[in-house]
Amino acid sequence: MAFLSDTLSRVKPSPTIAMTNKAADLKAAGQDVIGLSAGEPDFDTPENIRAAGIAAINAGKTRYTGVDGIAELKAAICAKFKRDNKLDYTPAQVSVGTGGKQVLYNALMATLNPGDEVVIPAPYWVSYPDMVLLAGGVPVTVEATLEDDFKITPQALEAVITPKTKWLIFNSPSNPTGAGYAWDELKALTDVLLRHPHVWVMSDDMYEHLAYGDFKFCTPAEVEPKLYERTLTVNGVSKAYAMTGWRIGYAAGPVELIAAMRKVQSQSTSNPCSISQWAAVEALNGPQDFIAPNNEMFVRRRDLVCGMLNAIEGVTCPVPEGAFYVYPSIKGLIGKTSKAGTVIEDDEAFATALLEETGIAVVFGAAFGLSPNFRISYATSDEALKEACGRIQDFCATLS
Questions:
Q1: Which of 69, 297, 368, 372 has the fewest C-beta atoms under 10 angstroms from its C-beta?
Q2: What is the model's pLDDT at position 148?
Q3: Are residues 315 and 371 in the same domain?
């Protein structure tokens, strides 16, 4: 009898974490490495939020809380949804978890039976398919191609829905592409979903506030109120508030679903960190004026990276609407050989050679379900980005 679970054999470790760890090992060994693989802002959590966490410690708010969040944080989340998304939720419809990943996982564990299908647009965040597999479901990918600006079409969505489909996982702006769906584009998708009342929507809005230029964020239940009763709207404080290490995510949806998610959480981790919850209350209720200047910084970095990558022959880098990622195509480089003799057979070979030969850590596109591409996180300094993109230019120029 095998000791490890058969389910575990269907799941692979996170490629983004693996690449980040590999880069860290090379750096520890003395190599000059610039990491562009981690998806977190490079600036500190705002001072008022840090102060709220310290105040919670000093006030002795260090004990167990309710399984899925304190009342004050649930109230702040309800206010946020009303303020930003015109969505009305009660605290009984809110779940708080240890990061957005746990919230998503709880929902899948609470709802999936063997054989249930979950539609996932590709490119996708690396964890979506594996969480579905761990929960006993079947991930069904639908490609969002470069030609379609990395957005799925209504026709493509319609084509993959079957009687076994239970969820659509929707992410805008997207990790890894940064692509964002405008109101009319999202309405076209919700029109499809209205024709399939057995399909629920899991909307991952983690990059909501990282939206640039004329792009206006919107979320499915806001665009189509008829989907309200079968939508789980997921968000968190990690990205916009630079709180990745605080580990607070949250979601709102139907009471019955939230209660089921609470049951899963009660028998796994129980409550999220009490201190982090109080810091998140301040994040949501406190000043939001730092978001706009941070976004201006991200726009500058985005344009820097896109400009330098698009100057490379054989590379095409679309300009994304949000998040802090770009997802360039290297179709024109496949089949070439690096200076050290590595054949660029695919995007994984490209990313590996790039790291080993230049010290630049990116994540290969196959990890996100669409090749030949790679992902860069531009949530780092202008200087690091200029140096990194310069090395990428030099590396590509020597391919033959």
A1: 297
A2: 96
A3: yes
Question: Is 136 in the same domain as 239?
Answer: yes
Of 42, 39, 95, nearest to 70 by C-alpha is 95
d(CA 76, CA 250): 11
Question: How does residue 26 score in pLDDT terms, banded at 50, 70 and 90?
Answer: confident
The mean of the pLDDT values for the chain is 96
Structure tokens at 226: 């008829």
CATH code of the domain containing 269:
3.40.640.10
Pairwise CA distance, residues 17 & 13, whole Å: 8
Tell me the chain's radius of gyration from C-alpha atoms: 21
Do residues 201 and 276 both lie within one domain? yes
Q: Other C-beta atoms within 10 Å of 376: how many?
A: 27
CA distance 321 to 49: 27
Contact 223/189 with Cβ under 8 angstroms? no
Q: Does pTM surpass 0.85? A: yes
At which residue do the structure tokens 């319609």 appear? 158
Alpha carbons 92 and 113: distance in angstroms, whole number:
25
Q: How many domains does the chain fold into?
A: 2
What's the rounded Cα separation, in Å, for the pair 377 and 327? Answer: 9
- Residue 236 sits at the vertex; the CA angle it makes with 235 and 241, to the nearest 5 degrees, is 130
What are the pLDDT digits (tens) for 205-221?
999 999 999 999 999 99
Say whether both 319 and 366 belong to one domain.
yes
CA dist., res. 94 & res. 200, Å (int): 17
CA count, 13 A, side-chain hemisphere, 96: 29
Give CA–CA dist 154/374, Å, rounded. Answer: 26
Closest CA to 370 of 141, 78, 188, 30: 141
